[in-house]
Structure formats: structure tokens, C-alpha cells
User: What shape does this take?
Amino acid sequence: MDFDLSEEQHALQEMARDFLAERWPTERSRQLLDARPALIDDDVWREIVEMGWLGVAASEEAGGIGGDVTTAAVLCQEAGRGVLPGPFESSLVAAIALDRSRDEALCKNLLPELIAGSRRVSVGIEEPGGLYGPDAVSAEAREEAGVWRVSGHKILVPEANEADRLLVAARTSQGPALWCVPAAAEGVTINRMDRMDAQSCGEVILEGAAAEGGVLAGAERGEALLREVYDIWTVLLAADLLGSAEASLELTRLYACERVQFGKPIGTFQAVSHRLADTLVEVEIGRSLLFAACLALDEGRDNAAPLVSAAKAWLGDTAVAAAETAMQIHGGVGFTWEYDVHLHLRRARCNAAMQGDADHHRDRIADYMGESWVAPVKA
Amino acid sequence: MDLEFSKADEDYRQRLRAWLRDNLGEGGSANAVMRQAEKDPGAAKDPLAGARAWARRLHEAGYVGLAWPKEYGGQDASFTEQVICAEEMARVRTPPLINTIGLTIIGPTLVQHGSEEQKRRFLPRILSADDLWCQGFSEPEAGSDLASLRCRAELDGDEFVVNGQKVWTSLAFLSNWMFLLVRTDPDAPKREGISYLLLDMKTPGINVRPLRNAAGGQHFSEVFLDDVRVPRDNLVGELNRGWSIARSSLDHERSGLSGVIALEETLGRLWRMAGGLKRGTDQALADAGARRALAQHWIEIEGLRHLGYRTLSDQIAGKPPGPGASVGKLFASEVRQEMTRTALQLEGPLGPVAKRSPHVVERGRWHAAYFDALAHSIGGGTSEIMRNVIAEKVLGLPRLQDD
Assistant: This one.
């Protein structure tokens, strides 16, 4: 029984936090709101690549360090805290997807290039229609004369405009799965979408676009891979939301200690301090859920999917509430462009609505409860 | 990171499960043990004979006083064994112990601060449930601001003479001993003039008046103390040093994992109830709002459970207590309340139907559970006090002005 990050994970977390505080000051994210899209500057990107962050959860053969989802989550938590834009998280997800596909050609060629920063790969799953996830995929894939062709409409594909390859979800009669499509292939149209926090994402229209190779992970395991990737991406976003919520709380905590009104620091007033105490409770419950979900994924537990949903639903709500609390407690200055509060609020609002919003995940948990109403965890 | 218990811990769990199977009687309830004891000819004089028998049986098997040292009849059990024991008992819903206050508050306090004579005298009788204890802390003018208590004790030779009033004293009318805080130096700053006494409830001058609570039941009392004489030997620790002793027992860390099992049971019951209730031609369980409310409770319970595992991991690793205890108390009481609100909402138009009516849902259990849940954010430190603690101790916000 040791329900805490390992020493290595703690060290990585500290290192990432220090690196981002120094090399990615929040001022940079603020500037990029006026110079959209927000992308990591080339020199910082090179350093991130050199530190091996993109391969943190990929196998060693592919140039990764063989870490697990928990380790990847630690980095995403810091990305959230530091308001780091793409393509870090989407590259991390793409590397995990390629690695877990065990597709020989892609793992031998594309994955090492992705980890080394010389190719960019993104993942497109969501579609218009207001629903989320693998079950809502309606894009289709057909095999014609030995070539897989994908047709459909993807939205909110992170850094789609900057990507060399896209891992897109489509469906055959056997169910949904992922295919790897070159962004430059004939039949691929990419239009910019814009996020409230200026992060880059795109709309991808596929009209019989030829895929590179076949179904990722093969026909047998293709749907399982897609679901696994969706869950991992979801939990990594939950980690980002945790970092975001922590940043909002810390900003507000410091402000409540310093700001004096009526002759006292405002943190002495219970209307202020109790709201922050409630935020702390929500953050700590969220951290517990996030660790639980990561561990369940890493150990392949049966209850991994509902725990992922729990972490995402809870932390989406928590990060948004923490940022709104930050804005309220900061008063007038919290509503200025110069303060960081709106940076966290923008990011939290966006990420809360990505990879399934809270209601989507509550519905998924309710389905799980209906299917298997048993004691959820036997530790 | 892992959530595994060791082989030795799992063996402990299996032995405990087997013991519970053998000792709970038919239908997974300990009532059999208790009924048997109540039939005993000697039981007529003791209305608690059944409950005492159950407590004693647990003690004989070594399942109470887990954290206490062996030399005073405890088990010297590890943190994980304590958690496993609490979890397993909650899982099979063993009857509540009548001497919980003794086992969890005054017992550990005496282990830490009591004299050797006090330990030898009181600890065995707590374990065997021969003595039942109540806590005399709160007063009419000293609730959340406990340190402003006014109940006076003056030394007269080898005895203290106690005068004052205590209130919200749980189970006072059943207890034969009380531990209480009294003011022994009215001129000292308020936290420095308080002493910690042990009081035999049969001493002349004590008047216990049970109060009926908002749920209609009897659980707590007012206790009036009029020239009550307490031997000086019954002082715990030093004179005027009682406040820090009381604080140490209030700070007694718990992982809260047994409470999680109870909440999980409650959620299961809610889910089944929603499956049986109608919304027009559908089940209440088909309603998206109801499903999401129940899923939210699942999330909250898993959050509490894994917060508990973090607290336990910190304890095992010997780390200073993290935010777990105060966060857990505050959040658990809120979850509990929300769940009973969800229950009453699910009942819809049948929600108001009272216990003895033929239309009542689940024999009115949710009305009782609702009231009971509301008490949880008041007793044992109000939620407002928990928020103060979190704000000051965890977040490091400036302290409220206080003398």
C-alpha cells in the first residue's frame, strides 16, 4: 500500500514545474492570445523533445522511456499548471496510441520520428453532432484494392494544421477504430478551428483519404485500442485540469494573504477563506480520483473506465469552479488582462468540454453502475 | 504507486472474515449474539446486556483497541490492520459498538497522557465495555468556541469541586463515566486555565436531562453539575494543561475508510430504490437527471475512498498527517447529506409520506437518514470549523483574530 507518486515521478514533476516556470512564463501564453494560434515556441519545443517528454509513456524500443500513464499524467498536470499550449499533449497522446498499436511499420518509422520531434502527429476522434467518444464515431473506413480509405468529418483535432499525420477514428461493420492518414493526402481538407484559450485545433474533412497501412492494432484489437487511447487521453486532460485548478487556487491563496481591506488581509474573512477551503477539498478529491484512474489504467483494472470518467467529470467541474473563484476573490484585478486568472479560466473551460464533458462521463458511470452494481473497488 | 495490501494483511482480512462469518449468526447480523445475551437471567438489570455482550465478544477475539499497546490489553495493530478491520466490519454491517467514545477518544487519550494508575484502572474496563464513557466538552456558551468554557473546578484539599453545565453530551444517560474539561484558573488566558478530569457519573450532584433531538430521538443530554466532588487522582495530565490534551484527542487521525463502505452501501440502496420507483410509465432510474445524480455520488465516494488510501499511505510511511483528515470529515458529511437529499428527491410525491402510512417508501428510512446526515456537519467539529482548520493549517491563510 503506497498510494503516492514514486520518487522518480515526484522528481520529474518538480523538474517539469521548474522548467516551465522558467522557460514558459505565463506572459507568453497571454501574448499568444493576441497572436493566435498558441503553439510552443521552437526553442522551448526542442528542449521539451530533448528531455524526452514525448516518449515518456512509450516503449524503449521506440525511443521512449517506457513510463506509464501515471508518469505521463504528471507532465500533463504541470502543462496545465504552466498553461503550456500544444502540441505537447496531442503528441504525447499520439505517441501512446502508436506505441500501443504495436503496428510494426509505424512503431519502427513514425513513432521514433515523433518522439524525436521531426514529425508531428495528432489524433482526431470527435465529430459534429454534440456527442463524444468512440461510440459517436460515424466516419467510415473501407478497404479498396488493398488500400484503406477514410471518409468523414472530424472536429477539435488538436494542432491539425501543424500535423504531418493524423490518427483518425472511423468505423467499419466491425466497429470503430483508428487509422493513420497523412495530412497531405488527397481527400484531406483541414480548416482552422480556434479555441477560447487560443490553442490550435482543426476541422478535418476526409473524402476517401488513403490511410497509411491498415486498422491500427488490427481488426481484432482495433476497437479496444481506440477505447484505450480515448481513456488515456481523457485522463491526461483530467491531469491538465488538476494542474490548472491547483494554479488557480495557489494564485488566489497568495492574493488572499496579501490583499488588505478593512485593515486586514482578506484571507481572514470567512467569506473568502471558506470558499478557498472548499476549493482545496475539491482539488484533493480530484487528485485522489486522478491517481486512482491512472493506477487502474496502468494495472489494467476492470474499473479503469468509470474511474477515468470520475476523474474527468470531477476535475472539469473543479478546475472551472477554481478559476471562477479566483476571479471573484481577486475582485477587479482578477478581471484584467494582465492577471493570469483568465488564462486558467480559459484553459479549464476548454478542457472541461473536451474528451467528454462532465455529463457525458456521469452518463458513462451510470451505465457502468447499471451493468455491474457491485462494490466498485476491491483494493 | 500501488493499492495492494501485503500477504500478511490479506491473511489478517481472511481470518477476520471467517471470524465474522462464525460470529454474526444467520442473515449477517449480530442480533443473534445480542438477543442471546438479553435472554440471560442476569440481563434484566442491564438494558445494555446485549450490546455489552457483542462488544465483549469482539474484545475477546482481539478486534477492539487495535491501536492500543499490548500491555494495556490492546493489539498493537498496524495501520493497515486497523483499516482492514474497520472496512470488514462496515461491509457486513456489524452493530455499532456502545463504547465507541471510550475506544476512540478517552482510551487513546489515557494511553498518551494518563498516569500509570489511570491506565491500569480504566483501560481494561473500556475494552470490556464494563465502563461506558461520555464526553463533557460543549457547554451552552462554548460550542465551536470550546476554549471559552465556563464549567468551574476548584481544589478543596484532595478534591476538585465542579460546578457548571455541559450540553450535547452523547449517551450521557447510559454512561457511568464522563471525561470533561473544566476551568481551573479563571484568571489565565482562556486556553491556559483548563484541566481534564475523569468523573464517576454516580457522584452526588450530577443531574442528566436527556434532550429530544430534531429527528425525534434521544441521543444527547444536558448535564448539570452542582458541587460535584472529583478526587484529585482523576486529573489527567497536569493542572491547567487540559486544552492541549483535548486537542490531541480531537486531532486523532482517521483514514475514514470505514465510512466509505457505509456510503457505498447507501448508494447501492439508492440505486435499487430508483429502479423500483415510477416516473409516469418509466422507472425513476430511466431519468437522466436521476442517473447523473447517482453517478455523481459514485464519483464522490471513489474520491473519498482514494483520499483515505492516500491518508493511510502517509501514515504507513510515517509522514506528517496531510490534509486528509479535515478534508475527509468535511467532504464526507456533505456527501452523506447530498445522498439523502437525492433519496428524498427520487421519492418524488411519495417523499413526504410518514413512517406508519401504508404508502411509505422504504419504511421511512430516508427521513431518518436525512436528519441523521444533517447532524454530521455539526457534531465533532462543525463544517465551518473544518473550513477554518483547512484555511489556516492547510492553506496557510492568516488566522482569524482571537485572543
Q: What stands out?
A: Chain A touches chain B through 50 residues (CB under 8 Å). The CA atoms of residues 174 and 219 of chain A lie 8 Å apart. The first helix of chain A runs from residue 7 to 23.
